[in-house]
Amino acid sequence: MTQPSAEIIRLREYRRHWREKYPEKSLLRLAQKRAVSRGTEFNLTLEDIVIPEICPVLGIPLIQGSRQLKDQSPTVDEFIPGKGYVKGNIVIISWRANRLKSDATLSEMQRVLKYYETPRGNLKETWLRHCWRLSKEAADLYSGARKILTNQTLTFTSLDDSLQLIDAGYTKSKQTMLTGHYLHNESRDVAIQLWEKRRGQAKYGSVSFTTFAHFVKGGSIDAKRSRRASVFGPCLQSVVITLLDKKRYSIDIFWRTTEFFKKLPADLCFIRDVLLAPFDFKSLSMHQFNCHFANVTMHPMYAVTIFPLSEDTIALLDDLKEVDPFFWKWSVKWSARYLCSEHSRGILKFSQALRVRKDVMSRLSPAMVKRLQKYLRTHHPRFRSDYEDPDDDE
Question: In terms of pTM, does the model score above 0.90?
Fold first, then answer.
């Protein structure tokens, strides 16, 4: 291999020192060269090149003047690809972020993000991954200790039988209750007939049915209830089934609200085993099962429900602590009420909380109980407040 001449070596060193001394000029010159080579517009001046200390996309430090482009090297990027290196259309980001973006449009990047954010696997695995992901998502608001997330759409790729009522601590009586509240036979029967017709035509189209089998829980707005009971309408709203083509279909379900740790898995089992059971999906493959929520509640009272199903609960709790200390604190406090006897006094006269404790203790191994007890006792906030039985309205 031929060695570079002394003159070439000196020229390389000169260029390197020049980039180190004048990084803004270097970036401006490179942007101009790219604009010429691509045939796009260029009207930048040196004042437009302001190099931040941190990459605004990835949050990594920007390091100037390196001989070769590295992940942390600053680069000039078009905000709208193809518009050119013009005033108002450039950002200074890391080479790593620039490579990830490449020449993709915002719409394309959103599609990529949606694809990779959608958990893959069976129904139980996907629901569990959504549980931990949403636990760490920033709340739109808090109602007491409850994290509220608004306008959520979550996708599942399977409606298999991996998820069962027992995974959320329920028995078949829960499905009986949901059937009474949410199975509107007349509406579903019409949808079944329309679906058969649509399948016979073998072309795109959709059918839907309502799940309004009641209007107010408990009979009427003015019905007598306990002091703690709430008044509200149906959580589950409607079902849409779409025949995409001769081989594929998708399902969309709409909720007013749901509690995600405990109530949603029961809803999913009910939808699969009751609402959708009479529909003929033979020879078709499900493209997507999309759940649309106006509101999602993550109640720390029920966080313990997913502990027996998680591979490394303690590591996941530590991750939660890093991103949402408030929700982590309440999850620790509530979980300690179930698993640590010294913190359980406040729940002893409330049947719902006692059912949660009985269920979780029956599904956790003795070794896991000990590990969790140690963690909860170590991290408990050390203050007490009275237990409040939660509203039924998720």
Answer: no
